[in-house]
Automatic annotation (TrEMBL):
PROSITE patterns: THYMIDYLATE_KINASE (PS01331). The keyword Metal-binding does not apply. The gene is tmk. Belongs to the thymidylate kinase family. Keywords: ATP-binding, Kinase, Nucleotide biosynthesis, Nucleotide-binding, Transferase. Pfam families: Thymidylate_kin. Its EC number is 2.7.4.9. This is Thymidylate kinase. It catalyses: dTMP + ATP = dTDP + ADP. It is an enzyme of class 2 (transferase).
């Protein structure tokens, strides 16, 4: 059975970039890796509806915090069998965003903290009710919100297909989301967390993740 790792962080933190570098490092060591990015755009109708809503479609859907969270959660529910199958055929399954994204953004939108009702609602819905697999380690890519916002804006200027959605344009939401993520990591919410910063060395992190048993939350320089 493979290890299930998750990368979390605000928009523009560098999750996708870090995921690619971790995969390269592990593949150089001969490990078999599978990677899934959530939301699963073009593969899940729920993910596509969520993205469209965040770009102004589907009436007041994006205005409903809980409707948005349900769409993201249903995307993961449909991926449960795929994740389990990938875990049985690979050394590592790496997820770019997962349940903690829903917990952090939903709590932040409701102006709640990590110990509030929204985070517990997501935990019970996704892990208990939908049976979504529990990650072995959740990696928080903890970069300053201003740096992440700069990167998201630069990405938008460079690529017309990457216009920022309603969440990405909301700096205050990103700051609150970052705070909830920090608290989730500090509490080792659901499973152990590993906090890394913008200058993390992906090769070193890759080695640490696969060589060490999960335990206390650690900080990799
Ligand atoms: N360590 C890094 N140093 C410099 N630029 C980075 C780094 N990581 C990501 N970026 C750039 O920042 C932007 C956002 O990164 P991305 O990985 O797409 O973030 P996310 O998946 O968290 O939204 C991209 O344009 C990427 O090239
Ligand atoms: C996966 C997921 C994402 N989100 C949010 C985070 C992002 O702001 C937004 C879109 O996801 P994101 O991964 O940023 O997609 P994109 O490739 O469009 O940048 O959805 C949730 O609120 N809950 C979730 O479960």
């Amino acid at each position: 059975m493979g290890l299930l790792f998750v990368i979390e962080g605000v928009d523009g933190a560098g999750k996708n970039t870090l995921a690619r570098r971790l995969v390269s490092a592990w593949e150089c060591d001969g490990l078999h890796i599978a990677r899934i990015g959530f939301p699963r755009y073009d593969r899940s109708v729920h993910a596509d509806l969520a993205a469209e809503a965040l770009h102004g479609e589907h009436g007041d859907t994006a205005g409903s915090v809980h409707a948005m969270a349900l769409l993201f959660a249903l995307d993961r529910r449909d991926a449960v069998d795929e994740i389990r199958k990938l875990l049985s055929h690979n050394d590592v399954v790496l997820l770019d965003r997962y349940v903690a994204s829903n917990a952090a953004y939903t709590a932040a939108r409701l102006e709640q903290t990590a110990d509030g009702g929204a985070v517990e609602w997501i935990r019970a819905l996704e892990f208990d009710r939908f049976g979504v697999p529990i990650p072995d380690i959740q990696i928080l890519l903890d970069v300053p919100v201003a740096l992440a916002a700069e990167r998201a804006a630069a990405r938008e200027s460079a690529d017309a297909a990457r216009t920022r959605d309603a969440y990405e344009r909301d700096g205050s939401l990103q700051s609150r989301t970052s705070a909830v993520y920090g608290a989730l990591a500090a509490a080792n919410w659901v499973s152990p967390w590993h906090v890394v910063t913008a200058d993390v060395d992906p090769d070193r992190l890759a080695a640490e993740l696969t060589n060490q048993p999960s335990g206390e939350p650690r900080v990799t320089p």
